Structure formats: structure tokens, C-alpha cells
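Figure-free illustration: sequence to structure, shown twice.
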Amino acid sequence: MSRLSRIADFGQQVWLDQLSRQLLRGGRLRRLIAEDAIAGVTSNPAIFQQAIAEDPLYREDLARLRAAEPDPERRFEALVLPDIREACDLLRPRYDESRGDKGYVSFEVSPRLAQDADATLAEARRLWAAIDRPNAMIKIPATRACLPAIRDAVAAGININVTLIFSPRQLDAVFAAFRDGLAARHAAGLPVAGLRGVASVFLSRVDARLDPRLAEAAPELRGSIAIASARAGYAHWQAVFGGDDFAALRAAGARPPSCLWASTGTKDPAYSDVRYVEELIGPDTVNTVPAATLEAFADHGEAAETLTRDLATARRRLAELAELGIDLDAEGEVLQEAGLAAFDRAFDALLERVA
């Protein structure tokens, strides 16, 4: 067994945070699925911006679409949605074998719609129909404005990957949106079994923002807050979806959204390059891993159940952070705005390239 495939022994899925035509046509994704138990793929505007810029396999189709499709956003979709479908088809055996637990491929709604719930829901419906694969996931940001879109998309039976979650308050709001969407669907007499979702909690950006302030005020907390928050968030997930409030939906076949650990590439070279993988391995979770981190773990990562390790210490560190006057929920709002701005810039660069 490879080092990566051993993670599955502890109930966690590893998804690749990368997609390109070369990855598909060159056979690397197929090998990762077969040899390293890669169970899904995520994409975002930055990933596709890089792929289209660097992968020569896009050039011929892009030249054709420039002549045939006048709208840059529709041109981009016409270029990459076939890749999303191809990745879904490649992962379909994993989806079928696991009865819908694994094998998902995520595609994001336009980041320009992050403050418009109605437009986001309409885009989610349109993209879900356009991809037309049961193992697709539509990515929606965890902004306050989009919470109703998340709830209504779940109620409509669309698999959702909620992205850009940085704080406990944001995570709890996403849990509520999923729960309300499942409840509305069940109340309407529609099936809730087979519907899948993930709540993508971003990690390394939290430490990158807080570490400079902690260096003098509390150096012992440096590099620990993102992991502590993730462990506390997972304990909250267990409480929310493991208790009586979710029992009726669970009996009807509903599955709670899994916690997905995102932004898992280490930004500070002083830390281990696999720390955001090794420290958060546990059941019913997903880790979406960029290519460099995937290669690092394949080389020297160690798999063990670590997610539930020493929850008391995680909570103590979060309490110490609050005692320093640092509000993790407020910091999460800042980080989410920065993340949206970064996706906007990547999307603009992407549309400029296809135009």
C-alpha cells in the first residue's frame, strides 16, 4: 500500500486539488485513483487559470471556441466542462462501489455571484444540469448572502461543496443551511438518501494570518490555531449530526455534510510540509490536497488517526487565543473576503486568457 492509500484505513478520503486536461489524458489521475486511493477532485478559478495557461492540450479547442462563442464566461465553461465530465466518469466506479460516498468532482459557480443568493442558486441549478453527472458537486461560497442558496440547492437535490469557511461561526451556519435544506427536501416527500455535501474548512491561511501577531504575544500558539479550530469544528459536527435533532433525517437516509480540510498546502517553511494532512486524519472527513503536498505525503507522510487527538488541548488553545483579544470569527470574515477577492482576480485572469 502507498502512504496515501493508508489514510483511507482511518475513514478519511483524499481528494486531489487540481484538474487539467494533461492530468486526465496523460493517465496520471487514473494512476492516482488506482494506486493511491484518490477518491475525488476539486477545482476552482485559480486551478483552471493555471491549467489553461500551461496545458497545451487546451489550445486547439480554445482557438475554435474563440471563433464560435462570443461570451468569455460561456467560452470558459465550454472549454472545461468536458474535463469535469471526464473526471466524473473516471471516478464513477469509485462512486458506484461506495454507494455514493466517494468519487466526486467539484466545479465552482462564478465568484462574482458571492453576494447574490438568487443568482448563485440559478447558476448551481444550471451547472448541475449541464454537467449531468450524479457524482458532480457544485461549489458555493459560505458567505452570509449565499446561505439561502446553499439551503435551497440541497433541498433541490444538488450535491454541494461549500467553500471558503474560515471560522467556527461560518462552519455552524453552513451546518444549519445543510440541515435545513435536507429537512425541507424530506418534508416535501423527496428522497434525501444519495445526496452528498462537504463543508470546506480552510486551514493554512488561518495560521498565515495569525502567526505574525502570535510571534510575540503567545509564541507557543504559532502554527496551532487552524488545526485546533478544525478539531473543535469536527467535535461540533459530531454533536450537531450525531444527536437527536438529526435522527429523523438520518433514519430517512440523509447524510450530513462531511468536514473537508482545504488550504492544506503549508505556507510557512518552518512547518512540516504535510502537517495539515497528518494532523487531521479521521473518519467521515475529506482532505483536498494540492499536487505538491500530495507528492510530499507520498514520500514521507505518516497515516494515523489524529483528528480526535487531545481535543482538550485544542479547546484550550482557542480559549487562549480569545484571551489575547483575537476573535477567530472576526478574523474569519476578513479571510473570507480576501479569499473571495483572490478568486475574483483568478476568474478575471481566466476570462482574460480565454478572451
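We now fold a second protein in the same way, so the two outputs can be compared directly.
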Amino acid sequence: MIIERPSADRGHVRAGWLDSHHTFSFGHYYDKAWMGFGPLRVINEDRVEPGAGFPPHRHANMEILSYVLEGALSHQDSTGGGGVIRPGEVQWMSAGHGVEHSEFNASQDAPVHFLQIWLQPDRVNAAPAYAQQAFEPVERHGAWATLASPEGRDGGLPIRQDARLLGTLLAAGEAVEYPLDGGRRYWLHVVTGEIEANGRVLAAGDALGFADESGTLALTGRGTGRADVLLFDLTR
């Protein structure tokens, strides 16, 4: 089964300093048909005005990844973790038994545009943890790079779930493939640009879910510039 999630069908919340699109139900946006996909619970595309952000708030038992597209995102949490995340960097925070954190636009002049991603962990009430990692764009040009993986295998950030987050950058005509195992689930999300995925044309914000699908996922870049694409390889 292949599930289509067009960008235009996502939830949209605008609250002054925040403009957010929700792939799955979150906050004031609720749709019982879109509560998540396997352990993947949240993909929010957020744009935050200069100097604004999310004040300290608490989470527990969730793996949270932040992926910055433009600008700079400042993070602080009660474990002592913190820093500024910029394009090409990914941040991981495992909320564990509970952590308080804040996220603000690090600039007083320019907006920040980023994805916030939540995955349910494979254990509860573990100790909170934090890490941040830079990924060179050249490593993703026309190839998959592991951005997050169980315990950090293959060089990714060490998430606590049987899941892998992979990323690629595709110029027009560049192609990558990924084998699909019918015993797992996959979620493909186009961050920017345009691609063709197994015959379907997808643009920024569009997504496809794959369940009970075997074979090969084939992607090809289209249009001008490079498409930025994320793939979640998920346990059922």
C-alpha cells in the first residue's frame, strides 16, 4: 500500500510569530486519519520570526530531531544540552523520563525555517540525552547518508528506536534507489525541490508512505536546483 500525503493537505497553523505545517496531528491541528505512521509521530515544518520561539516546555518519552533549512535555531534544555543549529546540522534530543527545553530563532534579523520530527522510542523513562551533528552536503549529493539510526550505527545520530533517517540531495537527472522490505514501513518526505518517486512527481512538502511494499524505491531529481529528500526506514 502506498499512501499519498500532498503538501497542500497538511494541517496549517499560523500564530503571529509562527507559521507551521503539520504532516500529522499536532497541537491545534487534529485529524484522526493522520495520527502518525508507525513510530513516526510528528513532522512539523516551522517558520519562526526573528527573535521569537518556543519558551521552556516539557516533554517525556519522545525522540525529537530538528533539521534546519534556513537560518539558525537556538536550543537549550534542562540536561545542559544546547547550541545553535544551522543548515546541514541535525539535532537529537531524547526526552526520556522528562526534559524541559526551549527553542528560539537565534537571529534578530532573519527568520528560521526548520523541520521538527518526533519518533516514539522503543523504551520508556530512560535518561534524557542530547547530541548535534553536522553532515557535509557533498556526502548526500546523489547518495543516501544516514542522519539518525539505532544507537548511532552507520554514523548517524543515536536514536532509541528501530528506525533510520536517511537524506539525499538530488539535482535534475541524479538518481538514487532504496530497497523496500515488506516487513517494514517507509516514509518519504520532500523537504525542498522536486523529484520523481516510482513514477510519482513530488514537490516540497509532499510525502509518500509505504506499507507492505517490497521492491525498490527509485528517486530522480527534477527541475532546477537540488531537491532535499528525507527517508524514514521504520519498524512496523
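Summary for the second example: The mean pLDDT is 93.
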